[in-house]
Amino acid sequence: MRLALDAMGGDYAPANPVAGVVQALRQYPDFTVILVGDEAKVRAEVAKHDLSGVADRVSYHHASQVVEMGESGLESVRKKKDSSVSRAIDLIKEGKADAVVSAGHTGALVAAATIKLRTLSGIHRPGLAVVIPADPKGFLLIDAGANIDPAPEHIVGYSIMGSIYVREILGYKEPRVGLMSIGTEASKGNEFTKSCYELLEQAPINFAGNVEGHGLFKDPVEVVVCDGFVGNILLKTVEGLAKSLFQWIKKEIVKSPVRMLGAWLTKGAFQAIRKQTSTDEYGGSPLLGVNGVCIKAHGNSSPTAIKNAVRVAREFVAQRVNERIVEAIDTHHEKLAAQ
Amino acid sequence: MRLALDAMGGDYAPANPVAGVVQALRQYPDFTVILVGDEAKVRAEVAKHDLSGVADRVSYHHASQVVEMGESGLESVRKKKDSSVSRAIDLIKEGKADAVVSAGHTGALVAAATIKLRTLSGIHRPGLAVVIPADPKGFLLIDAGANIDPAPEHIVGYSIMGSIYVREILGYKEPRVGLMSIGTEASKGNEFTKSCYELLEQAPINFAGNVEGHGLFKDPVEVVVCDGFVGNILLKTVEGLAKSLFQWIKKEIVKSPVRMLGAWLTKGAFQAIRKQTSTDEYGGSPLLGVNGVCIKAHGNSSPTAIKNAVRVAREFVAQRVNERIVEAIDTHHEKLAAQ
What we know:
2 copies of one chain form a homodimer.
Chain A: E1 2-6, H1 15-27, E2 32-37, H2 39-46, E3 58-62, H3 73-79, H4 84-93, E4 99-102, H5 106-117, E5 127-132, E6 139-142, H6 152-168, E7 176-180, H7 191-202, E8 206-211, E9 223-225, H8 228-253, H9 257-265, H10 267-277, H11 279-282, E10 285-288, E11 293-296, H12 303-318, H13 321-338
Keywords (chains A, B): Acyltransferase, Cytoplasm, Lipid biosynthesis, Lipid metabolism, Phospholipid biosynthesis, Phospholipid metabolism, Transferase
Subunit structure (chains A, B): Homodimer. Probably interacts with PlsY.
Catalytic activity (chains A, B): a fatty acyl-[ACP] + phosphate = an acyl phosphate + holo-[ACP]
């Protein structure tokens, strides 16, 4: 696989993208990487690492601009043609790379990928698919914010793409799809989800009906579909609450030496939970539905998170996820046409 | 205050509603209660308690039906005219009670209150207002699920009602209102929230712009407004995740005796957090905007939660919250008309 890495994307760029890809180069022998971004800065960062044995798998592609957090993702495609994320996508378009990993501006990645690569045949809008930790295993949330005002048909696309992704990449057999709503009965929901519900009943998936927040974290369905507005709120709320709960625990612990001793004795438990709930482990979130492999890593990605995003990109290419999505959508449309 | 208690509402009815109101009768000398529900069952439950000194403040109102969880709230008003929640609302309408507390079916309470009591002058739809724990103090989420497909104007009503409620009942000075969205910039959001944003800028509130999930649990704004679909998902997701995280911690702790010892030493910290995050302490959630005082307690309310819901009802009546809402809405409409 030939990876284009947005070396300037994310809160800790270029340090963490570079450190992460160096880890990945050592761990996975089967890919090469093009580091996209301000070449002087990226080379200076790379110089901090020992590249012996892997240096010949690294090349550079200069990009003079970076999309900043406050900017409009859509406008960035036009106004910052030489941004690291746009140039990384260009490399896919030009056939010089097989996949992009970026920890930068989500909207810019979504816009650049959608405009430059277009969507897969039969898919109208891409969706950002994020794994949310749960017990005993995480579920895939799609869409986590790529498509803010979708049509019900887009949700059907998400359900099919999500099912294929969790089967091929997460190894979930016969995945079920739940529709995010406010009650498990079919009659519960808003006008939008009620329309989605009817379409999902016809879709070539294991539709499990509505799911609600109480059911997300213990034995959840494998794929949860929703519009990008609800999905983004859900994702950020889950991240915010988990972070705050651990901070509250810490704040209470440090109030007494006895509690601090107790915390030290239980630290293995908390490490296990941190690992279980860490976004680092799941690596990147694929933008499903674009005609190319685009993996979004979290803005605050650690080197480990970047390494795992590279792993996801490798598996996505190797499992031919996009080809399988196109096949599934084709079959679905043929069936609908025959009805 | 004359309280009508839905004695048959909730997962543990009539036991917990009865036990909770007995606690409240002892703690607050300034109210009387009408226990609404199957009189034989309710009297049998009351007989388990010592009512000495408070018995003359308790009366009964028979209601032969209960709205079950799977039923449609709206249909229940027509089909189960003799349900405990409908009869409790009737008592307000007939001037025999000042407030209702129910831990039963939310939709049935919302429908019965809206149909029988109507909305306050100038308010088109009621909203369920729930306090969500945060650090250092909780925020009010409105609407948590009363109004699933609202118009932007309804959100303005929520912002005004929520501001008055947190000022009068929670003692928050100069409360700010945030609009639940997917980015703090004004340009972020879906079509619906963008319409809401414009109206909220004109509303007689301290509008703080958009808020997102990352900002909800540490120093949040005092009031967060959203449509009832998003609010209900948010509420249940927060409850579900908090519960699961504590279960995961417990599961890891019991894996070793050392960890169990450590947990015993830290248990004060966890008790403090449980108290901070417990819905019991905040008591009931008011249905703001109906022409009457209706407090929804959680379906799984403990006796303490019921007692605190009674406390909220008392304060709501004493602070004349509804009168203040009507005044604020009147002033707002006069200003708009004068523009």
